[in-house]
Recover the amino acids of this structure.
């Protein structure tokens, strides 16, 4: 990209992967974050502020600022959603409700 322009990288996450600014892969530090992200000191400061916030109200306000910042720098674009339907036999017991399936605590009756 030495001559300018855009680059595109495709990936996907489940909701738990991007649940808050600390767990989210979006970073303003390209040297320590995931490759290809912008160098954005303001975004990194907001992530630090979120980590140090002590109340849910403060965390919510900071998370909203992070979202505004990410939209402003066009860090990503949602191109769609997909769902993976799953069915289990009715004699499988002990399923743990979670964003991902854990295969412990299971029994067959």
């Amino acid at each position: 990209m030495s001559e300018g322009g855009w680059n595109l990288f495709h990936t996907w996450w489940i909701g738990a992967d991007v649940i808050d600014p600390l767990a989210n892969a979006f970073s303003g530090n390209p040297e320590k974050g995931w490759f290809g992200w912008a160098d954005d000191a303001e975004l990194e400061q907001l992530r630090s502020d979120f980590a140090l916030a002590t109340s849910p109200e403060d965390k919510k306000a900071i998370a909203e600022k992070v979202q505004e910042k990410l939209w402003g720098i066009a860090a990503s674009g949602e191109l769609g959603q997909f769902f993976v339907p799953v069915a289990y036999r009715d004699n499988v017991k002990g399923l743990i409700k979670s964003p991902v399936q854990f295969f412990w605590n299971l029994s067959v009756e």
Remarks:
- The chain is about 25% helix and 5% strand.
